From TrEMBL:
Protein's name in the database: SAM-dependent methyltransferase
Classification via InterPro entries: SAM-dependent_MTases_sf
Amino acid sequence: MGLQLNTVIPWGRSLGEYIRMFDLTPDDLKLSILDCAGGPASFNIEMTQQGYSIISCDPIYQFSANEIFQRIQDTYTTVVDGVKASSQDYVWDNIPSPEQLGEIRMAAMEQFLSDFTIGKQQGRYLTAELPQLPFNSHQFDLALCSHFLFTFSDHFSEAFHLQAILELCRVAQQVRIFPLLKVSGEPSPFLQPIIQELETRGYRTKLKTVNYQFQKNGNQMLKIHKYP
């Protein structure tokens, strides 16, 4: 893969955040789950500690824990300063300040780093990236994709988004994507055309409001599954 680590800004989220972002129920957690573009989230280790079935994939997993840690150190202050500069674009209810946001994210990333080497050996962290995944069709019950698709609509085309989502639908019975806003906070222009195309291809889609909002108006998730 051609990914350069110096182009990546690692930023990890916790199991609690995943539960709220993706409206995960206790029954959902029992499913076979793929966390696609998972980055340095603690979701995998927290799920594993509770006995659940989880695989995370991301191109960043080609690097070592030490290399990822160094990149986190190199970019952490820049990210927090950027959030401070645009603090009006965020909702500060559950997270009271940019500084505390940084602490929460760092705690999740430290959990990830402590688990990454052994988790990779166990096959829980796999180096892979959309729009082509090294998994069998319907290998997972549920695929989750956080802060990648639609978030980076200015970097990836509508065609890429459609191909990536169809690939997630190939490997999982159900797909959930959050959020549906661009990094800038604007709605992704790809959302409605992609929903229409998916429904034309026989997929059922649903926009669901979830109990998680950090970006203003960023509290919707897209659920996709094939008609039975």
